[in-house]
């Protein structure tokens, strides 16, 4: 394992220190709780606070999406592990201006429990936390059990639209409803070509045999729906787009936003090679692409692989997507 | 009647913590087969922080439980932070004012810990979680007491049932948490949470047995 680390047990602390040094104009680590990163502007008077939280190792998610018209604060967990209830609470405290706080997070057992506890603790202090739980990963459960699906890169669209809605001055319930709509309009799929290693564990979390790929892999290496021989990018891209769009069931002519993210160790050029096939499949189905995002938006340490997210758009979501943002992860 | 003195029994919790730290790599390895492989790392981190704060302080059992539970809940996160955090803080509350813990109070303590876990988690027995070690252990302890067996023998029954419960997770299909995404592919591997729970219960039982006394001691 060749990694740029100091102490394997201090990876998150060291990451946050370097991150805060790089982006001090936008955000800061909380002085009371170093596992909370907040926008320097927070709390913004009159605005609903927008927070999220999750395990580390997905950079630039979640901390990279803090900034103007985006997230106001993030609760930071260990690598691939939920933040504490206290960190979710401290994030809510950091952004609350009396207008309530919306917590937009992904569907994972630990996050669900810690957010639930944070909501109770916050209520005692008179802070209202509304939640939206992302469940955009189509391979993690069948359509009939959508509530069980994991949240993956669709969370970025949920944050973008929720953050923009809050910046427009919407109420807590309005922000919640719009963020819910955004994630309900998202479908994602991941394909893994190589595993990742938690530095403190020291060996790969799972195995992907050479010459094979795992279709439907999760953001922490959760097994996919099938293991297949590695195919060409054209075939994989078409398959990713088909899986997502079949689940979506959009009418021809619908407008969509496309987000392709590397999982950490896939070169950007390969994402463009995938996009070539993905966009062809989208065009074949008569859908219109409003905007495409390609980059390392939501990674999984040094996993080799990529995710595709498609969000169906309406006028409101287009307007919110178009709003300027100022955050470390360029959008 | 056998009792466990609350006072100065905090080292039982220290022994539990040291056992978890010792099994850091083992727990991560089991977790890595069907989860993400960080169970041992995160457990060791939390129990390690608690151990440092317990060591040499001559804490009561309730104070040590409360310290461990609070560390897990406020400093660890993940799924295990809140679940074990609730269990240990409920343990602490159940024996807080008790100088001499008898078998009935010990059973109440275990049940309170279980209730704490169930208040935030939604798992049931058979879902391939720590409950598959904890619930049969409590049932076995209570059954032994009801059958009129002494405290120490009931503790033996608790350990046997916890370990049998842990082993039973091997053939289970995970229904909750990260491993549940695997469906049938989760069969054949022990659940990491049930494994750590069995370790905790074993050291809790051994530490308790070693301190059982017929005398009643005041808390302070």
Please provide a brief summary of the model.
The complex is a heterodimer of chains A (331) and B (220). Chain A has eight helices and twelve strands. With 331 residues, chain A is an alpha/beta fold.
Secondary-structure map:
The complex is a heterodimer of chains A (331) and B (220).
Chain A: H1 11-22, E1 27-29, E2 36-39, E3 49-56, E4 73-79, H2 85-95, E5 101-106, H3 109-124, E6 129-134, H4 154-167, H5 172-184, E7 186-194, E8 212-215, E9 226-229, H6 233-248, E10 255-262, H7 268-284, E11 288-295, E12 304-312, H8 315-322
Chain B: E1 4-5, H1 11-22, H2 24-34, H3 39-54, H4 61-76, H5 80-95, E2 100-101, H6 103-120, H7 131-146, H8 151-168, H9 192-211
Helix pairs in contact in B: 1-3, 1-4, 1-9, 2-3, 2-9, 3-4, 4-5, 5-6, 6-7, 7-8, 7-9, 8-9
Please tell me about this protein's structure.
The complex is a heterodimer of chains A (331) and B (220). By secondary structure, chain A is α/β, with parallel strands linked by helices. Chain A has 2 domains: 11-184, Dihydroxyacetone kinase, domain 1 (Rossmann fold), CATH 3.40.50.10440; 186-313, Dihydroxyacetone kinase, domain 2 (Hypothetical Protein Tm841, Chain: A,domain 3). Chain A has 8 helices and 12 strands. Chain A has helices at residues 11-22, 85-95, 109-124, 154-167, 172-184, 233-248, 268-284, 315-322; strands spanning 27-29, 36-39, 49-56, 73-79, 101-106, 129-134, 186-194, 212-215, 226-229, 255-262, 288-295, 304-312. Chain A has a 6-stranded mixed β-sheet, with helices on both faces. Chain B has a single domain (4-211), classed as Serine Threonine Protein Phosphatase 5, Tetratricopeptide repeat (Alpha Horseshoe), CATH 1.25.40.340. The mean pLDDT of chain B is 92. The A-B interface holds A 9, 55, 77-87, 108-110, 113-114, 116-117, 140-141, 150, 198, 200-201, 203, 205-206, 218, 220-223 and B 28, 32, 36-38, 41-42, 45, 73-83, 120-121, 176-178, 181-182, 185.
């Amino acid at each position: 394992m060749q990694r740029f680390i100091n102490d394997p047990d201090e990876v998150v602390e060291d990451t946050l220190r370097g991150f805060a040094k790089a982006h001090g104009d936008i955000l800061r680590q909380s002085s009371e709780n170093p596992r909370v990163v907040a926008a320097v502007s927070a709390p913004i008077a009159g605005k609903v606070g927008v927070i999220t939280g999750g395990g580390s190792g997905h950079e630039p998610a979640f901390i990279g999406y803090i900034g103007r018209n985006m997230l106001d604060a993030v609760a930071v967990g260990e690598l691939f592990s939920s933040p504490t209830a206290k960190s979710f609470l401290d994030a809510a405290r950091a952004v609350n201006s009396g207008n309530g706080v919306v917590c937009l997070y992904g569907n994972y057992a630990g996050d669900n429990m810690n957010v639930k506890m944070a909501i109770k603790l916050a209520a005692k202090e008179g802070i209202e936390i509304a939640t939206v739980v992302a469940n955009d990963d189509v391979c993690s459960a069948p359509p009939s059990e959508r509530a069980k699906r994991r949240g993956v890169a669709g969370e970025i669209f949920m944050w973008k639209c929720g953050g923009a809605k809050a910046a427009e001055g919407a109420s807590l319930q309005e922000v919640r409803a719009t963020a819910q709509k955004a994630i309900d309009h998202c479908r994602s799929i991941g394909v893994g070509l190589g595993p990742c290693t938690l530095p403190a564990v020291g060996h790969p979390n799972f195995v992907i045999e050479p010459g094979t790929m795992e279709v439907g892999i999760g953001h922490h290496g959760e097994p996919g729906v099938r293991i297949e021989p590695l195919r060409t990018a054209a075939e994989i891209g078409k398959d990713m787009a088909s899986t997502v769009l079949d689940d979506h069931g959009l009418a021809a002519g619908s407008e969509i936003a496309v987000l392709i993210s590397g999982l950490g160790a896939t070169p950007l050029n390969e994402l463009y090679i995938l996009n070539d096939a993905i966009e062809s499949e989208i065009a074949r189905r008569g859908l219109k692409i409003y905007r495409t995002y390609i980059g390392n938006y939501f990674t999984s340490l040094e996993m080799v692989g990529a995710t595709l997210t498609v969000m169906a758009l309406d006028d409101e979501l287009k307007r919110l997507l178009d709003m300027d943002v100022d955050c470390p992860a360029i959008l | 009647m056998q009792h466990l003195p609350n006072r100065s029994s905090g080292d039982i919790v220290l022994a539990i913590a040291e056992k978890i730290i010792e099994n850091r790599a083992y727990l991560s390895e089991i977790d890595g087969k069907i989860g993400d492989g960080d169970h041992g790392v995160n457990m060791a981190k939390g129990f390690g922080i608690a151990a440092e704060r317990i060591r040499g302080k001559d804490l009561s059992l309730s104070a040590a439980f409360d310290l461990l539970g609070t560390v897990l809940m406020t400093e660890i996160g993940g799924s295990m932070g809140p679940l074990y955090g609730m269990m240990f803080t409920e343990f602490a509350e159940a024996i807080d004012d008790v100088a001499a813990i008898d078998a009935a109070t010990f059973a109440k303590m275990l049940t309170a810990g279980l209730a704490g876990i169930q208040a935030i988690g939604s798992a049931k027995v058979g879902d391939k979680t720590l409950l598959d070690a904890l619930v049969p252990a409590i049932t076995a302890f209570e059954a032994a007491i009801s059958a009129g067996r002494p405290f120490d023998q009931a503790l033996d029954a608790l350990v046997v049932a916890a370990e049998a419960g842990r082993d039973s997770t091997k053939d289970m299909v995970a229904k909750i948490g990260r491993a549940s995404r695997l469906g049938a592919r989760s069969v054949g591997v022990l659940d990491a949470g049930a494994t750590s729970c069995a370790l905790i219960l074993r050291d809790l039982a051994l530490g308790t047995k070693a301190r059982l006394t017929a005398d009643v001691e005041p808390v302070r």
